[in-house]
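Troubleshooting: if your tokenizer reports a length mismatch, compare your output against this known-good record of 534 residues.
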Amino acid sequence: MSPGSRVQSSGSKGLPRRSRSAAKAGPRRAAWVSRPPVFLALVLLAGCATGPPSVSAFAPVGATADKPSVPPVPPVHEALDAIFNDPLFARATFGVRVESLADSRVLYTRNSEKLVVPASNMKLLTMSVAAEKLGWDFVFETQLDAAGTVADGTLTGDLIVVGGGDPSIDSQNFGASPLFDEWAESLRAAGIRRVEGRLIGDDNVFDDTIVGPGWAWDYLGDGYAAGSSALNYNENTAVIRIWPGATLGAPARVELSPPGHGLTLTSTVTTAAAGGTPSISQFRQPGSDALALNGTIPLDRAVVVRTAAIENPTQFFVNGFKAALEARDIAVRGGAWDVDALSTPPTSTGRRTLATRRSLPLSSLGAYFLKESQNFYGEAILKTLGQRVDRAGSTAAGKRVVNETLTAWGIPEDSYLMYDGSGLSRYNYVSADAIVLLLKHVWNDERQRGPFLAALPVGGQDGTLGLRMRNTVLAGRVQAKTGTISNVRSLSGFLVTESGERLVFSMIANHFTATSAQVDAVVERALAYLARSR
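Known-good structure output:
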């Protein structure tokens, strides 16, 4: 597949035409602590002398009183050139654009028209178009149907789960009660204690290609690279827990959960001397359920927790549901099936809906998607755009919707190339100019501005910026999307300066051999200069 083509046709089952089992991949996202999305609203009192801006409304910051005089500063372009010209990045490429939102003055550009790999800044395109086309109140629906007759507590027929692409089912980020528990109660309420037929997962609202073009094969088995199906459960990941053995050199103890993960585990992890750090690698061959672990864990380590991407999300879903039913003494005699594996389709005789699961609104899911950079949400949202607007639940259809929408917003078609919804693909390209145009469009749309800003990470406070910018002038002043894959680092969003001026910016680094921390330091020096000098 050529990285230059804008829309890639999606096939069925493979890599990228792979069995639904297709694995998932992409750049590593920041680990997140289980908690509901935070919608921050810090209120600045009138006359307050110090403090960050209101992050919910992105209100101006009041000027500080009796501010000490400072020596004159060089023009912005000279100061930022001096920062980005750090010899450490002599061979790197920075794409940068900074504008004032007050009057669209361009304060600084550096290769801003050049196409660069954006990593998770691609999520800004996905989310902004989804908000426009689906609306912040949009909810995903997942339906539980029964087909057949019920007599004496027995369903003679099939149970069918019809997926709608919801990425949040039993996600640890949201506090709702587990779906399978709710549905077990729905079956009991319908008088069903036994299913003589099959439990079928119908995922046909989406195509069967669950990974994006350009995703790297060597991380398709990692949890951050989980692919997206019309039926998703537990973020399409299995949890790996690893404990040291009782003695030095002993095999580590490994457990996988939840039930029905479908992975076969081979572990050569051994117990190392106390006082060290764990060194454990994991690998799953694309298209295979075989998960291999190797490395060491120190004798005094309590537990190491990892996640692994599931090969077949639909089968994972129905396996988990079947296990939950059987734990509540509801037997399923016909087994759990991915609809695509059936020789006989589900019967339509007497089919009726027993329960419908509705997700939280897109405003909540979008906050998790952007703040925590949850990759597989991006693919679910992109395919949903295709299914709802272009009548095809595929990545290609979703990209068509994004392309048409961005063109209508005045963003040139040659200023980006989109291949997935999350930014995991290295086939993605975008210019800093294009991202700033997009962010300005969102800012100028009163329907979108508030929810979109609430969904962005806040410097020093939450999401993937929670551990950055703390105790600096940028804390609470920056709302921006991060991005990371190997040798790519990006940050695009909004900044309120000390004087209350609102700036929009995009800063994307490619082709560097320095550490991500060193790139972050340069970007944050540039933002701090802007915050203090404006």
